[in-house]
Amino acid sequence: MTIISENIIDTLLDSYADEKNYFSDLKTMAVEQPDLVAFIDQENYTLLTNEEQALMEYLTTVIYFSAKSVLGKNLIVRGKELEKAEEANWNIFNEAATKNFSKF
Questions:
Q1: What is the Cα–Cα distance from 15 to 17, expressed in whole angstroms?
Q2: Nearest CA among 65, 3, 2, 1 for reference residue 32
Q3: How far apart are CA 65 and CA 73, in angstroms?
Q4: Domain ranges within the chain, ordered by starting residue
Q5: 99 contacts 93 by C-beta, under 8 angstroms
């Protein structure tokens, strides 16, 4: 397992203090990972507030570029893989005795 150090994340967060850097990375991620960006944007507009949606995009960008920095290569996330993972997560949730996300 590869560990992403706190220093890498902090460096990225510091660079995002200048919003131009964040928006540049967000655009880059949209080009490199169209399926991922489409996935986080789908349906969530009805589930999340604008602030929550913006936070999810921000955190996804931080995670993506932190991982890319450590691995030294572009990660490829495909829509079919995301759909399978989402379905598996919902199956776990639906089969659980409790229907409370905080219990997982």
A1: 5
A2: 65
A3: 10
A4: 6-94
A5: yes
Which pLDDT tens digit goes with each residue over 41-97?
Answer: 876 667 788 898 899 999 999 999 999 999 887 778 888 888 898 889 888 878 877
- Which tens digits make up the pLDDT trace of 16-38? 999 999 999 999 999 999 998 98
The Cβ of residue 81 has, within 10 Å, a number of other Cβ atoms equal to 13
Flag whether pLDDT at 104 surpasses 90.
no
CA–CA distance, 48 with 12 (Å, rounded to integer): 25
Amino acid present at 28: T
Q: Residue 99 burial (CB < 10 Å; 0-12/13-18/19+)? A: exposed
